[in-house]
Amino acid sequence: MVRGAHPIARTGNALPARALGLALWGALALPGAAMAATYKWVDEQGNVHYSDSVPPEQTRQKHFRLDAQGRQIEVIEGAKSPEMLQREQMLRRLRAETAGLIEEQRNRDMALLRTYASEEDMRLALNDQIVQSDASVLILKKYRARHADILRTQEKRAAEMERQGQAVAAQVLKAIEDERRRIADYEDKIRVLEDKKRIIEDRFSRDMERFRALKAEQVRSSHGALGEVFAADDDSGGLSAVACSSEAICLKAWALARSYVLRKADTPLAMDTERLVYTSTPLSDQDMALTLARIAGHGEETVFLDIRCRQSSLGRELCAGPKARDIRAGFRSSVEAGMGSVP
């Protein structure tokens, strides 16, 4: 062995010096090549450009960075006007209010799922409440029947006195009045219990429907759910929101907005309340989910639409693309056209 020689010189797999140098150069060069970026930007005439750099005069405008497959991976914002900053602040507030409504509904849903393990558990619980209610009604009806008998006896006494030409005794008149009052009181209590029974049955029906929907959503979301991203503000100068100042107008705007959401969403309805419409988390890169919220304010309310896509590169691209812009742009005009005028 030659003193000072590297052990690699003895191996059968040793690389020639030139080949080793080329391999090292390639290893160093590849990361730099992979970092080369492509940008997309739009000039003042609306023409779309692609290049490996953005002209200095365009850097103050919004532009995009693309990956090797041409998919959008980053939005680079330009200088923002006061109007844009104000719109962003409003968007953050509306999203925060909407998130609060979603959280409230999720808490109610979790309470329902914690309370009942199955539909059979719900039916048993309903049956227990109905049995208790019916038992209470039966007792009250027995008391009412007993006092009805007493009332008939007192009325017969009064009739007998009148046939004999006597004035009806004061105590008899008072007894009749007391029994009629007691019977009316029992009838009121029976009516209250029967109303509560109907409320229990209606609530059970709604809870059962919601329980089934939640179980179905659990099964659905277990296949391909990656989370969500929001569609970015499109710099159009207006949010996908409609303001209303009276209950009648707000109800009409809400109905029109809900109809619009159900037409445009790609995912099934997951939450549907008086103040929130929320379609299921998108499982496909091509699916767009929508959220509609009715948000209270000072002197007026806001009906706000938001757009959600799958948390993936294709999902982010969908939320930044023409489909999201068209849904956002069409929302306000669709609602206002249905109302006939801007509130």
Automatic annotation (TrEMBL):
Residues 27-83 form the DUF4124 domain. Residues 1-36 form the signal peptide. Residues 144-203 form a coiled coil. Keywords: Coiled coil, Signal. Pfam families: DUF4124. It comes from the Bacteria. This is DUF4124 domain-containing protein. It comes from Methylococcus geothermalis. The lineage of its organism: Bacteria, Pseudomonadati, Pseudomonadota, Gammaproteobacteria, Methylococcales.
